[in-house]
Write a structure and sequence with these properties.
The complex is a heterodimer of chains A (about 140) and B (about 290).
Chain A: E1 3-8, E2 13-19, E3 21-26, E4 29-33, E5 40-44, E6 47-53, E7 56-63, E8 66-70, E9 74-79, E10 82-84, H1 90-106, H2 112-134
Parallel strand pairs in A: 1-9
Antiparallel strand pairs in A: 1-2, 3-4, 3-6, 5-8, 6-7, 7-10, 8-9
Chain B: H1 4-41, H2 43-60, H3 68-71, E1 78-83, H4 94-111, E2 115-118, H5 123-133, H6 151-166, E3 172-180, E4 186-194, E5 211-213, H7 216-290
Parallel strand pairs in B: 1-2, 1-3
Antiparallel strand pairs in B: 3-4
The chains are: A alpha+beta (about 140), B alpha/beta (about 290).
């Protein structure tokens, strides 16, 4: 029994289909979701979503962060963007890394949420560069 | 009695006005279609976000450390109103409906002894409110010269509101926008943003409760600003769709009115022409008789 996977951005439904397994980059480590997974709501970090049919990876998408809702039959990924890995641009990653570094440097050392956010942006930008290199 | 030449000039000018209004109507119709499909495309995300928020919020709302975005500051003194209007006019009562509703709400709140702050989005709303409520306007945002609104715009606006909340500048935030009901009717609506009204959690349909990773609180810290941005995005898109709908209706009316006017003026023109001919004939005939 496959898993229903949906990837949604605020601007449109990016992907909807059935997969045998999907690996999502959760904030605390990658999660491989098979059917009958325990219901979870997870925060995503920047990274690659891998779609599996059988043992084969059929698609890889880069996401810069977001949320995912996992139920026993369904995975819904709410991402601001999801780019096929082949289309991820190294230059854009570099640009974001520079922006994130500037943000981190500018953040108030005592403002923990802002620092966390800047850290996430840094991580997301690094993941983007990694994804671009892997492609 | 205007001369024949005056009438001719008037008819021509009304005709060119009619050409402009009917072109504007057509442009608005095609833009409306695009705005509508954009609004539709945004729906799945908003629905799923709502579902997540329902299961998350229910478990966190009771806790004393619940984030301000969810439960508010606990006070109800300073209200921030965010009226969303278009940047351009020529759309019937579309913009002034929002202006009027905002003004009424502001008056009501002030009568209750509360402080009102206004953050107008869209140029027309700001212009309208500047006349009477200028002292309450704290800042304004507009998208003049932009073709379409992206999610990034809503996100930036959301961050700004979150920043104001963090700085303790208001307690309650309400958005006032035109809900797109149909092409010919847009309903001015107020929607509370902060404290976040929680969708009823029951509709998840008896599903097992979720595990959260990381914990609820850090999830909420991320989910709530995103939800705020999504709600704003939806309001902005409905506003855009409503604006084009309203403009289309207004321009349709204007085209029809111009048609009526041309008909009336042409009738006057023909009558005047006829009168002139008759007068000339009488002159000729009476001149011939006199000879």
């Amino acid at each position: 029994m496959p898993v229903d996977l949906e990837i949604v951005s605020p601007e449109k439904l990016l992907l909807s289909g059935k997969v045998d397994m999907v690996v999502i980059p959760a904030a605390e480590g990658e999660i491989g979701v098979l059917p009958q997974h325990a219901p979870m709501i997870v925060l995503l970090r920047g990274g690659t979503i891998r779609l599996y049919q059988g043992n084969r990876v059929t698609e890889q998408l880069f996401v810069s962060g977001g949320f995912a809702e996992i139920t026993t039959t369904r995975v819904t990924v709410l991402a601001n963007e999801a780019t096929p890995i082949a289309a991820v641009s190294r230059a854009e990653g570099d640009r974001r890394l520079a922006a994130a570094e500037a943000e981190y440097a500018a953040a108030d050392r005592l403002d923990v949420p802002a620092l966390d956010l800047a850290m996430d942006h840094l991580q997301s930008a690094r993941a983007m560069i990694e994804a671009a290199q892997a492609a | 009695m205007p001369s024949l030449k005056d009438l001719r000039i008037r008819i021509n000018s009304v005709k060119s006005t009619q050409k402009i209004t009917s072109a504007m109507k057509m442009v608005a119709a095609s833009k409306l279609r695009r705005a509508q499909s954009q609004a539709e495309a945004a729906r799945p995300y908003a629905e799923r976000m709502e579902r997540m928020l329902a299961s998350l919020g229910a478990s966190a709302a009771g806790s004393p450390t619940a984030p301000k975005l969810l439960v508010g500051t606990g006070a109800d003194r300073v209200h921030l109103l965010v009226p969303v209007t278009a940047d351009r006019g020529l759309a019937g009562a579309f913009n002034s409906n929002i202006g009027r509703l905002t003004r009424n709400i502001a008056r009501r709140l002030e009568a209750e002894g509360k402080t009102v702050k206004i953050l107008p989005v869209g140029r027309k709303g700001r212009d309208y409110l500047k006349r009477e409520l200028a002292s309450r306007i704290v800042a304004d945002v507009n998208f003049v010269g932009r073709k379409a609104i992206g999610f990034a715009d809503a996100e930036a606006l959301g961050l700004r509101i979150v920043g104001m909340l963090a700085a303790g500048e208001f307690d309650v935030c309400t958005v006032i926008y035109n809900r797109f009901h149909s092409v010919i009717s847009q309903l001015p609506t107020e929607m509370q943003l902060i404290p976040t009204p929680l969708p009823p959690a029951g509709e998840a349909g008896g599903q097992a409760s979720y595990e959260f990773e990381p914990d609820e609180e850090s999830m909420l810290a991320r989910l709530l600003p995103q939800n705020l941005a999504i709600q704003l995005y939806r309001a902005l898109l409905e506003n855009a769709a409503g604006f084009y709908g309203s403009q289309m209706t207004a321009m349709d009316n204007a085209t029809r009115n111009a048609g009526d006017m041309i008909k009336r003026l042409t009738q006057n023109y023909n009558r005047a022409r006829q009168a002139n001919i008759t007068k000339e004939l009488i002159e000729i005939i009476s001149g011939a008789e006199a000879v």
